[in-house]
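Figure caption, in words: inputs first, then the predicted bound structure.
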Amino acid sequence: MAMIEFDDVQKYYGDFHALKDINLKIEAGETVVLIGPSGSGKSTLIRTVNGLEPVQDGRLIVNGQDLANRKTDINRIRKNVGMVFQHFNLYANKTILENIMLAPRIVLKRDEAENKKFAMELLDRVGLADQAEKYPAQLSGGQQQRIAIARSLAMKPKCLLFDEPTSALDPEMIDDVLNVMKDIARDSNMTMLVVTHEMGFAREVADRVIFMADGQILEDDSSDTFFNGEPSNERARQFLGKIITH
Ligand SMILES: Nc1ncnc2c1ncn2[C@@H]1O[C@H](COP(=O)(O)OP(=O)(O)OP(=O)(O)O)[C@@H](O)[C@H]1O
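Bound structure (adenosine-5'-triphosphate present):
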């Protein structure tokens, strides 16, 4: 069974039709990059996958549960589906280590010693083991985002969602964050859905690239076809031309 499956999904904000007839299947272990112009519905789509935005019609199966069904337990989905935001969303009054240990302690009731050991391993993996006792405000944006990624990984999710994780960062911080994301993408068990304008990342590690405009998916290609061949959709071709030359 696919990790994520949209079947004719519709999403409205009031009268505004934000996601139109979305059909999309993402298999376990795939890395999928979602691109498109501002306002095309990328954030909306990614936020439906962990129930941050409800959908109004269709079927949306995530890890075997239907999010379009109001009876579905969203907390069970969120245990397996982590999210990394543009603005990190760390707890300002907790240390870095506490930020990472909190959810596994409360939600998974993970043993305290094991929790700390795993948190330290993750800090090491994102290159910040020496920052464990600091507070978020003492770190740079790029470091905070790497902590936010480590915090998501602490739940041992099956799937990670990234919503423009590098757009709020100074240019010199971006590569450190992308390198951590590339490392996760190479882990064949993790499913990743990433909204980003970083085409180097998409080209290097994405299995697929999806282009959205006006709430619709207009192109869904292998990364190779998208970058080395040509998207068949005219708007996708234009978009690609613009972002690569600018
Ligand atoms: N909470 C909301 N209420 C009403 N309309 C919304 C809401 N959130 C988003 N929208 C609208 O839905 C459309 C899609 O927005 P969304 O943020 O998903 O686009 P996006 O492709 O992620 O854009 P960006 O790249 O600028 O973040 C936009 O027209 C936006 O104004």
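The two ends are 39 Å apart (CA to CA).
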